[in-house]
Amino acid sequence: MAHSCFRQGRTVLISAALRPLLGRSVDGPVGKVIDVLVVLAILFGVATSLGLGTRELNASLSHAFAVPDSYGVKITIIAGLMTVSTISAMTGLGRGIRALSLANIALSAGLLVLVLALGPTGDLLTTFGIGMRDYIGNFLPMSLATEGAPANTWDHEWIFFFWAWWIGWTPFVDIFIARISRGRTIRNVIAGAVAVPSLISFAWFAVFGGTSLQRELSGTVDVAGIAADTKSVATIEVLRTLPLTTIAVALLVPVMALLFITSADSASFMLGCTTSGGSMKPPRPLRLMWSFAAAFAAVLLLSGGQDSLRSTAVIAAVPFTLILLALCVALALSLWQDRPTRRGPEETSE
Known about the structure:
mainly alpha; 0% strand; transport; BCCT_transptr; transmembrane helix; BCCT family transporter; transmembrane
């Protein structure tokens, strides 16, 4: 997307990035259909995240602070998150979205360092090394693992739901990263959007996953049993085995809330870009309208609960998978067209 926009001079639209492959057809109905699918994928992906996240957040508040676990509270949480994300989206990338993102990073880093320092630090460092080794060694075979699995199993859920969920996030994430990548090289973007976040994710999973595994194996907390019902409650129970429990739990709730808010405000901004013809600065009324799309999560939550949210993510992601494959081909063609041409001796001497 960034290469298409800033090197080729196209708009910030996924349909425009497909021009090297589809040609002028992206200016007609084909391009419109692609952009509609982009909007649906972003909307359903964020709605699914907010809906499932609201469920986890409500369970955390109920477990830690005796807040009722009910649909009324869930709707209140969604309304509160939507209000903050709307204010953030209206102020733009350089102000509200940036400020909340920095706050989210600071609180998340504080929680990570706290658990690393107070938990089984030696075991966590070992887990980090083993995890990286296994990730690198199994990346290709696990990425291509599509073997069938019986319904109602973890393998079945992982292969279909989580892959679909992440695919549903791709149009929002790639447009957002493209939007903030002006003036950077492809190498910079790969380092900043792939390499560094991956290393941070390794550390995050090693610290929190490693602490949970240690507590499970030692019999201190039945993590698997608790997580089977509500994952966030299992997180709280693990944190309660550490010193300074109050601080750790107090950090957890705002971290969870900010994760959802920063996703929703960025998504509404990108939806505004897509539905305003690829404008870098979508009109505020359009951003406001898409900010309220978060309420869609409440409708799904009330109508069908968790199963409805999961089905919606899969439905939105399936058609966009073909677009992702097309984008890979279009990028290769675009880079080939943009390659440096070899000049002759006369041109070089000039």
